[in-house]
Amino acid sequence: MNRRRSIWTKTACVLVAAGTMYGQRGVGDWMTGHSDAQRSSWVRNDAKISVASVLQPGFQLDWKLKLADVPLTPPVMIDFYIGFRGFRSLGFAGSTANGVTGIDTDLGRMEWQKTIPVKTPQAVAASGCPGGMTAGVTRAIATGYPPPPTGRTVGRGSPAKSGVGEPLEGAVTLKPVPPPVAAPVVVPATTPPRRVALPPSPFVPRVQYVHAISADGRLHSFYLSNGEEPDPALDFLPPNTFAQGLMVFDGKAYATTANRCGGVADGVWALDLKSKKAIQWKSRGNVAGSGGAAVSPDGTLFVAAGKELVALDGGTLKEKGAYSIAAGEFSSSPVVFPHKDQDLVAAVSGDGRLHVVDGAAVSKPIAVSPVFGTPGYAAGALATWQDAAGTRWILVPTAKAIATWKLVDQDGGLKLQAGWVSREMVSPLPPLVINDVVFAVSGGDGSTPAVLYAFDALTGKEIWSSGSTISSMVRTGGLAAGGSRVYVSGQDGTQYAFGFPIEH
User: Which among 422, 437, 429, 434 is positioned nearest to 397, based on CA atoms?
Assistant: First the structure.
């Protein structure tokens, strides 16, 4: 009887743990530049961050870590990893000096670090061609939309606690522990997206990698756990290109090249990881933005280049259509989002307008904003989220602030309606959204260090700032988030993590 009870107890523990892993693995992580395949920069379900919680004392610098090299971007994440060292939360950051670093994001310490040897001499930095490694690292990702807000949070809202009472309360007395107050999660009133990326089954063993492109154009794949590279790197891009937006899905790696660095035409590249063959689509103008291509759930790639927003078949890179603007050129990477039965795509042009097109028929715009930004300012990338009323918001960095637009049904069509504008900032970077909070960085300049701000996503009211915590400028990659933390990469090589500290 005791043996049977023991077996049932162990089985129940396994099932509970598996259910926890299923809820926490995969789609909840910040997987690639700007979070997901759509480049939305939106964390939909977080256990602790909300307007109400950030207004209370406790949200602060959790840790900072000085790296030997300048980080390219804040890290990509895995918030619940089970490896040979137990349960871990890990982040992975690339550096300009061809380095990749694994970070224990709970403890703020380096887990592993690798410097990638390059086969060809590294080019000297020139105007528009920074040299070294230029694309941030990535993890393999699904192209479906991340699950919408559900009202239920995943991840750890508080440190583990014992069920045994405090001293003098009795060793056998179970002390009730109140559940953590989870952040109120915005639940859209509209129908959930049609194609949603589901977490992988925890019962299926799989090897997980972090991918990086070195300055000589080779694609490297490292084990998440220890940074080892089990297989030879694959030839992908020509050496010394200005690569951006590295993404891996459906057995292929994708990246964009810009500014004709390395003497290479701008465009989109795809590498089949099985056949090891690479192909390129050459753009008719300079590839815009910091996020590279954005992907709709059916695998279509969208890239802004010159005066065109182009749709490409993910398998062949053949053009499926293009939208052209009359004035200026595009200045941001696209972002993809669902609206009813459509996949919509938005990007900003250099004359200071926001353009929205139908991903299935990109040649004609659905909505175009009036001029609101400073002409010539490179927005870099956008962010988007949907509020509880079902309203779609698009967030755009301008020269001095974050501007927001709402996509609304009006007169039988869709219109862009101006929303709030943030406080003034110095060279703001692309923002991100966590639940109902917008985080944005004032990038700073030679005399002014960067500052991280938090705003109410519905009203634009400033609810928190990092003050003088960050000691340098922030120039690349924007922000990343995961595990109730927001990550900022300083130009001096310091990685900052802001959040609610937990006990260790």
Answer: 429
